[in-house]
Amino acid sequence: MPNLGLHIGFALEAANRLGHPLTQEHLGSYLLGCTAPDVRLSAGWKREQTHFFKLTTDSTGAGYEGLLQAHP
Asked: What is the distance between the alpha carbons of residues 59 and 15, in angstroms, rounded to a whole number?
């Protein structure tokens, strides 16, 4: 799992490439969103509760599908 700084670095790079004004206007919320799933480490939750897929068995895109199923 990438560390917190790497998550933020990837998110900042993605925001710059996207170039959408909303990511700059709401940068704090955007960065929180890119790191919030790893709160599980402090809370003692299973990874699947915050990432919506099993890293070892699920296919690419399963996390996105799981997120939309859990929170339509």
From this structure: 25
pLDDT digits (tens, 9 = 90+) for 40-50: 777 788 777 77
Q: How far is CA 58 from CA 3, 40, 41, 47, 65, in A?
A: 22, 19, 21, 13, 11
Which DSSP letter does residue 39 get? G
Q: Is-above-0.85 flag for pTM?
A: no
Q: Which amino acid is at 18?
A: L
CB of 62 closer than 8 Å to CB of 52:
yes
Q: Give burial (CB, 10 Å; 0-12/13-18/19+) of 38.
A: middle
